[in-house]
Amino acid sequence: MSWVFLLFAGLFEVVWALSMKQSEGFTRLAPSFVTLCAMIVSFSLLALAMRSLPLGTAYMIWTGIGAVGALVVGAMFLGEALTPLRVSAALLIVAGIAVMKLSH
Q1: Among the four residues 57, 84, 96, 102, which has the most C-beta atoms within 10 Å?
Q2: Where are the domains of the chain?
């Protein structure tokens, strides 16, 4: 169950990153509220996952899901560029996560 908690914690990290961008520096109320709620859910699920997963593994996977997810969401919904270098960086993050998981 810890892996499920970790997956959803990472997905909620993407939600709060997107809503933070849309809050325009916390000047818009609705996206600011979504940001804070998604942060609470994300951190809570991460804490539940860390009950049985190693700190380094859990944190690396959580941040990796957030980083790669934010890149994908930014490209799909905000028109951000998916350059070969940015895609390569995302692939390196995924490779790092895979190696971390294999070492567990």
Answers
A1: 57
A2: 2-103
